[in-house]
User: What shape does this take?
Amino acid sequence: MKILVTGASGFLGGALTQALLRDGEDVRVLARASSRLTHLEGLPVEIVTGTLADKESLRPAVAGVHTLYHCAGLSADWGAWDAFYQANVAGTRALLDVAEAAGVQRFLHVSTSDVYGYPPEACDETHPITDVGLPYNRSKGLGEQAVWDWHARTGLPVTVVRPASIYGPRSKDFVAEIAALLYRRQMVLLDGGRVHAGLLYIDNAVAAMRAAATSPRTVGQAYNLRDPIDITWRDYIAALAAGLQRPFPWIRLPGGVALALARGMETLHRRLRLPGRPLLTRHAVYIMIRSQGYAIDKAQRDFGLTAPVSFEEGMARTLAWLDTEEGRRMAPR
Ligand SMILES: NC(=O)c1ccc[n+]([C@@H]2O[C@H](COP(=O)([O-])OP(=O)(O)OC[C@H]3O[C@@H](n4cnc5c(N)ncnc54)[C@H](OP(=O)(O)O)[C@@H]3O)[C@@H](O)[C@H]2O)c1
Assistant: This one.
């Protein structure tokens, strides 16, 4: 049975593709002409060149596909709304359209727990998708809504996963960027790092997605994903700093102050059209000050979510990767 993975040049889609190929699955990936696929070199994978921005380029990718894992998307805490909209909303709609026309049997959509809008208490899947006006949160919410619309209108068999904080080799958001800040002694600890980090080791994320996509119980359902462990940001950053032999962050800020600073920096950045991204963004601050310990009972019950890779092992593999050529390129010392 043919499997299509979008976003295979990225962190999550790349690890998923490698795992599927290791198990002898028949895998095709959708990649842009500019996508970097060195991690798939030498593997028996079919590559179809296309982009979510061009619906016609998606038709050859979905032809004959049984299961589709939609991992492509713009995952960032800062950027132009149009870029988020095109990748996460318009791109998802285009893919849903061609997938449904091609008779895809299962569409696994990678959403995010950010769609809840960073509520004060971590919630379960019954919490509504909530737009708090940040581009990633808004675009992922609209993208997921498109998945539900297609499911309701056409009966396309969809399953949605909402991972929290995925870490591991090739992670830019929760590994490379934090490591780079620790190297430069610029990592800021917010509210003492006391909230649940919602960590999900990459291989555990991949195993969960595969279990969700192959279970008959999960059609038309959404699932929060994180490892069933209680690790705070303080624990995680301390483990990373110790492993890298760098000091624990000395810059500490209360969450409310960080949020106000982020708002100010974002406004300044936009008004002055500054390049790059602000030092602090509301998105990054919310992740660090609002618990990411979203309920996972539903995933545990419906497809047996577990963490085959422990936190200790996950950290050991992450630290080993940071020492590789790729790790040193993504997190310069
Ligand atoms: N990382 C996390 O902790 C996390 C947590 C929750 C949810 N998620 C979700 O998981 C998914 C994957 O995230 P990630 O961390 O793997 O991100 P990533 O490493 O940045 O990968 C993003 C992938 O999407 C592809 N892509 C972006 N725009 C595209 C377009 N217009 N057409 C085709 N491909 C396009 C990229 O291709 P190029 O290489 O060509 O740019 C890349 O392969 C995203 O949907 C994200 O929202 C991630």
About this structure: The radius of gyration is 19 Å. The longest strand covers residues 26-31.
